[in-house]
User: What shape does this take?
Amino acid sequence: MISFLDLKAINAQYKKELLEACETVIDSGWYIQGTQCSKFEEEFAKFCGAKYCIGVANGLDALTLIIRGYKEIGVLENGDEVIVPANTYIASILAISQNNLTPILVEPQLDTLLIDSSKIEDKITKKTKAIMVVHLYGQTCEMDEIYKLAKKYNLKVIEDSAQSHGAFYKDRRCGTLGDASGFSFYPGKNLGALGDAGAVTTDDKKLADTIKALKNYGSHKKYENKYKGVNSRLDELQASLLRVKLRYLEQEITNRKDIASFYIQNIKNSAITLPIVETDSVWHLFIIKVKRRDELQKYLLDNNIQTLIHYPIPPHQQEAYQEWNKLSFPITEKIHKEVLSLPISGLQSIEDTQQIVRVINEFN
Ligand SMILES: *Cc1c(COP(=O)(O)O)cnc(C)c1O
Assistant: This one.
C-alpha cells in the first residue's frame, strides 16, 4: 500500500537528532517558556523573513490570538467583519467567530482554488476591517490584488499560512505577506511537530508584544496580568523538535516540488484536471479535480494507493455553522465534490510516484 503520508517514516529520518533534542530538554529541567522556544522563534522568524515570531500551542490559536491581539490594541472590535475564503479548512473561520467578529465568506477561483480577489470588493461594508487570506494547499494568494483593496479600504491583512511554510510570493515568503500570519505545526503539515504547535509572525511590535502576553495568561511581567489571557504556549519539547525539522524544511520543499512536477508532466487522463498554480507552491497537498471523484478514490484504493479529500464538506454546510446552511456557494460546493489529494511528501520514492501515475493514467 502506498500510504497518503507516512509520518512514522518521515520522522524516522531524523530520529537520532530528535532523540538528542528530547534529551537536551529533559536534562535541562526547564520545560515551558525556555530557550528552545525562544531559539525556535528566532530561527523561524529568520526563515520567513519576519521581525517577530511568537510560538503558541497550535495553528487555530495562532489565528485566534492575532485577532484577539488586534482587539486588545484597538484595531478590531466585536461585530467587525472579516473577509475569508469559503473554500478553506474550518479553523480559519473559527478564529474569526470565536472572537465575536463576523466571517464574510468569498468564493474561490475554480482553477487555483484560492480566494477570488475580484469578488472581494462587493462584500466590503462599513464594518469590514480585515481580510484573512488562506494560502491553501501550499500556494500563495494573489497578494498584489489583496493589498490594493486593503489600502483602498484600510483593512488589515491576516494570513492563514498553516499549509504554506516557506512559499514565496514574488521575493517574500508567506509569514511576511500580510500584517500578521498564523502557522500550524500539526504533525502532517510540511513543518510538523510531534504533537500540537503553532506560531504567529509579524513585523508589528505592538501586536507581537500583546500576543506574547495573551498566550501566557495575559501576563506581560511575571505575576502581573495586563489582559484576560489564555494558556497557549509552545512547550520546550515541541520547540526543540521543530528546530531539528526546520533545518530540513528547504529539502522537504524541494522534494515535494519534484514530485509535483513529475505528476504534472506525466499524469495524462482527460477525466482529470491537474492543479493550476499561478504563484509559488510548497505543495502541502497535490489536488486533482475529477467529476467521478469517489469512483477514482475507490479505484486507487483497490490498486493500493491511499488518497484523501481536502475537504469533503465546506464550512458553510457544517452543522457548526447552521446559520449558513441555506447559503449557496456554487464554486466552493463544486470544488468540494471534485477534489482528491494524491500522496505527496518529501520522502515519497520515484517508484511510488511512477506507480501512482501509471494507475491514474489507466483509469477510465
Ligand atoms: C491545519 C490548519 C489550521 C489549524 O492548525 P491546527 O494546528 O490544527 O490548529 C488552520 N488553517 C488551515 C488552513 C489548516 O490547514
